[in-house]
Automatic annotation (TrEMBL):
It comes from the Bacteria. It comes from Psychrobacillus faecigallinarum. InterPro entries: Metal_Hydrolase (IPR032466), Pept_M19 (IPR008257). This is Membrane dipeptidase. The lineage of its organism: Bacteria, Bacillati, Bacillota, Bacilli, Bacillales.
Length: 318
């Protein structure tokens, strides 16, 4: 069964390796490096139709270096992910997803936190031109656009943040709420044409600032947005390990709130230090699919795996 995975951190791994900070390998090879959970071989084995690649900048990077860090990750996307792997096809417009041929894997750029462009909207427009199709305003910290889920202040969007959401609407770019404060979430819901949670679970089952409560979930579904469950155990059960059955409980709860056609998968591969048993890399997706098929119809599981995403409002022709 085909898969669309809306979050991984492979670009950060490639960058850290290039800079000699991890793995003692310089550089990592995206084609088959065992250190990369979403390498091409594993994406192919997992039958991944499209993979989102997050551009993430650590908060402790000096502000005057963040733009360069972001561009370096995007350059690695072009040179290492796309340039050396003919099977990887850049999805620069949503309609490109429907043009993938057998054996091809779509690669989608996403920005995890507006720190990269600060308050420079010219830089944001460059990111659109480079093919970024999903933007989360924050990671867990605060920035010039909004407060993140880990910011004690819990503020919402700034005027700049609101302007970014409106620009996302104009460019048919998803506005990702997965790391936002709750107030920021509601500000996005008031403004965004294309709200989306790339990797979040339900706080009803796991009380964590990164998860969404029932009111948020219902609002997302009512607006046509989708929520993609994340495989990270602390967001599943608050522990360092979890079972696939624990993850499926979050899908069950989302379905109980009317989301059977608005659920997807956002693994967080290459960004985790703890794992759900049986889900350690992209080639493990069939394990999850087999477990889901014990609980849901094939049509419903196909929806969770990829078809629901293909029905997002941003993908529909005007």
């Amino acid at each position: 069964m085909k898969i669309i995975d809306t979050h991984c951190d492979a670009l950060l791994k490639l960058q850290l390796a290039k800079r000699g900070r991890v793995y003692q390998v310089n550089p990592l090879t995206f084609t088959d490096a065992p250190e990369i959970e979403t390498n091409v071989e594993r994406l192919s084995e997992g039958n991944v139709l499209a993979q989102f690649f997050a551009v993430f900048i650590y908060p402790n990077i000096p502000d005057d270096q963040k733009w360069a860090h972001a561009l370096e990750q995007i350059d690695l996307f072009y040179t290492e992910v796309l340039g050396k792997n003919p099977r990887m096809k850049h999805i620069k417009k949503w309609e490109d997803l429907g043009k993938l041929k057998d054996g091809e894997i779509g690669a989608i750029l996403a920005l995890e936190g507006a720190d990269a462009f600060g308050n420079d909207l010219m830089k944001l427009r460059h990111l659109y031109r480079l093919g970024v199709l999903s933007i989360g305003l924050t990671w867990n910290n605060a920035n010039l656009c909004a407060d993140g889920a880990g910011e004690p202040r819990g503020g919402g969007l700034t005027l700049l943040g609101k302007e970014v959401v409106l620009l996302n609407n104009e460019h048919k770019v998803l506005t990702d709420v997965s790391h936002l404060s709750e107030k920021g979430f509601w500000d996005v819901m008031n403004l965004a044409n294309f709200p989306f949670a790339s990797h979040s679970n339900t706080s009803n089952l796991c009380e964590h600032p990164r998860n969404l409560n029932d009111e948020q979930i219902k609002a997302m579904f009512d607006k046509g947005g989708h929520i993609h469950v994340v495989f990270y155990p602390p967001f599943i059960n608050g522990k360092d390990t979890a079972e696939i059955s624990d993850l499926i409980k979050h899908i069950d709860h989302l379905c109980s709130l009317g989301g059977v056609k608005r659920i997807g998968l956002g693994s967080d591969f290459d960004g985790m230090d703890f794992y759900t048993n049986g889900l350690h890399k992209s080639s493990d997706f069939p394990v999850l699919i087999n477990e889901l098929l014990k609980c849901y119809s094939e049509e419903e599981v196909q929806g969770f795996a990829y078809k629901n995403f293909m029905n997002l409002p941003v993908l529909q022709k005007n």
